UniProtKB/TrEMBL annotation:
Naturally occurring in which organism (per UniProt): Aedes aegypti
UniProt keyword list: Disulfide bond, Glycoprotein, Hydrolase, Protease, Secreted, Serine protease, Signal
GO biological process, one term: proteolysis
This protein's name: AAEL011624-PB
Gene3D superfamilies per record: Trypsin-like serine proteases (2.40.10.10)
Amino acid sequence: FDCGGTVISDRYVLTAAHCASKGNNVNPAPEIVRFAELDLTVDEDEFDIEIEKITRHPAHRFRSSYHDIALVRLKEHLRFSAVVRPACLWVDVDANPSPVIATGFGQLDVADERGSNTLRKVQLDVQDLSGCNNQFLGTRNFPNGMTDNQLCIGSSRGGKDTCQGDSGGPIQVLANPKWCIYHVLGVTSAGSACGTMKPAVYTKVTSYIDWIEGIVWGSG
């Protein structure tokens, strides 16, 4: 699996727009979503549901990393259980809580070619946008630098990061530990060398609440 995602309803998964490739022999469009997967080497509770449609944000372009957010509509309704349940969306536009948690099956370092067999998590810190702006301004993915629709997140001590294969996965905040209620603050989008002192870029969910709600719970 090249990307991750977050269940936000019984019919939709939130992910990154660049994960919804145009569909060709090199980068075929995704066809299924796997749920309840914790260890790729063990057959337990995991199951797949086919994808009916992927809706990228209308402002997203594959040549850049702006508006890197998409919604995956499943062909059938998802049954929630003890191991599969939806996350909430972070809606406070004035607050970016830190630290946060990132999860995924991505590579463990830049030399890793296959990624992790187990779902892993890492605690990271929300940083000032200037940290990513200094790093990415003028690059192909960020010709105009960072925007307020993005988050700059990394580890102040280095060695902790998301990596290739983690794209589309969530940046989470545990808002209610007693009930294990997670809120999705961001979507893993782009970075450079994994596990260095350099932060990475994540799509800020609060900037797209109206768009998400209009499709998932509205008439969209």
